[in-house]
Design a protein that fits this description.
The protein has 299 residues and is α+β, with helices and mostly antiparallel strands. It folds into 2 domains: 104 residues, Phosphorylase Kinase, domain 1; 178 residues, Aminoglycoside 3'-phosphotransferase, Chain: A, domain 2. The protein contains 10 helices and 9 strands. Strands 1-2-3-5-4 form a 5-stranded antiparallel beta sheet, sandwiched between helices. Helix 4 runs parallel beside helix 8, helix 6 crosses helix 9 and helix 9 packs antiparallel against helix 10. The chain is globular, with a radius of gyration of 19 Å. The two termini are 33 Å apart.
Length: 299
Amino acid sequence: MSTEQMHPGVHPLDEGLVRRLVAGQFPRWAGQAVRRVPSGGTVNAMYRLGDAMVVRLPLTRGGAADIAREREWLPRLAARLPTAVPEVLGAGEPAEGYPWPWSVYRWLAGTNPEAGALSEPALLAGDLAGFVAAMRSIGLPGAPEAYRGGPVATLDASTRAAIEALRGIPQEGVDCDAATAVWEEALRAPGRDGPPVWLHGDLMPGNLLVDGGRLTSVIDFGCMGVGDPACDLFPAWNLLPAHARQVFREALGVDDASWARGRGRTLSQALIALPHYRRTNPSMAANARHVIRAVLEEG
């Protein structure tokens, strides 16, 4: 995977730079081993620091805002959520030629769940619903707008452009007419009923950690904020099989309009991701293909 190809403006990172940053700003951790954490993420790089910590550094300027958002809000959200979330142990600043803020977090153990290989899909669906419900119940004032929290219509141009791009890649086998029909159903669905709610905003499998098939941690809160509750329905199609998808829906009491918006939003993200990442990020492309299949099979 080449991050240089995925996005313009990627800052080069290596273990030596991370060691220098840590030694310069957190000398108490200077002797800890540093090693890159393999990840399919596209915005940040992760480096283990010893056995108990991890360093998270933005790859591009846009990721710097995520670091600031997590520093401000994660300490206030942690006690209100049923799963572990990242705990900021150190707030790093630009140095050594590295231009953006970065953070040291406590390491959270677990593995990323994989669609099609879940050991306890129905139980995991319930865990995910509990997390989403807890996020929605938060009433902290002054919340930022979620990165993906606006009206579905704001995604229309980019979604249609992605569908047309996929028409030009027949080897991907996407039924572009069916995808368009699902997308237009989402556009026709009524908007949210009620005020915006707190969202994680990026519930991808790579941002979930499980142990024994159960959800233990949720990470990467850079997209969090308030917005349309349908934005946190992504796991229904990017991870859960059909029977567990229904468990997730029933646990959250999702109405038809919200379900249509959530399905459309999840499909939109996948349609945009697939032509963009198909040659540069295998894990993102594979999940996009899974989402497209899951959505279109659901009808």
